[in-house]
Amino acid sequence: MAVTYSPELLALLPHDPDTRLTTEQYQHLLVSREYVLPIFNRGQRATFLFLSTVVNEAPGPIVLLEIVEAGVAAIFRQGGKRIFGVAEKPATITGLVAAVAIYAGVVWIAPPVWAAALCALLAGLACRPVGAIVYRLPFEFMRLIGR
After folding, report:
1. d(Cα 8, Cα 136) in Å, to the nearest integer?
2. Each residue of 11-28: pLDDT tens digit?
3. Would you call 97 exposed, middle or buried from its count of C-beta atoms within 10 A (0-12, 13-18, 19+)?
4. What is the spatial distance between Cα 107 and Cα 11, in angstroms, rounded to a whole number?
5. Which of 25, 29, 132, 146 could form a disulfide with 21 if both were Cys (CB 3.0 to 4.6 A apart)?
6. Judging by DSSP bridges, how do beta strands 35-36 and 4-5 pair with one another?
7. 3-class DSSP assignment, residue 58
């Protein structure tokens, strides 16, 4: 399924990739993108991800959507905070489970109590980055072996 820019936007852009954009073209691309979507069969969907320079506390960028066909639904899902590419909630939950596992492993080897407490404290303080890394490990492993 090919998603292309609209004919109006293509007419505005230079045809040669080596040509530098004019100020007008650059300003238009900063605020607007127009796409032409093909006809979808039942169950097919298109997902668009937009990177924005708007800070999290701002009201956010405005995305205007015009749907010409009847019976088409559009759903907006605002992205949340991500840690190493993992959503915050799964990273936190995985990190807390990893912190408990680290604490159990440290207690099992029977060091002094202060060392076990220090390991548990450090694992708890860094639970989100640790959780994000642990969460991504199976995906990265599968990517490395080529599946």
Report:
1. 41
2. 888 878 788 888 888 887
3. middle
4. 67
5. 25
6. antiparallel
7. coil
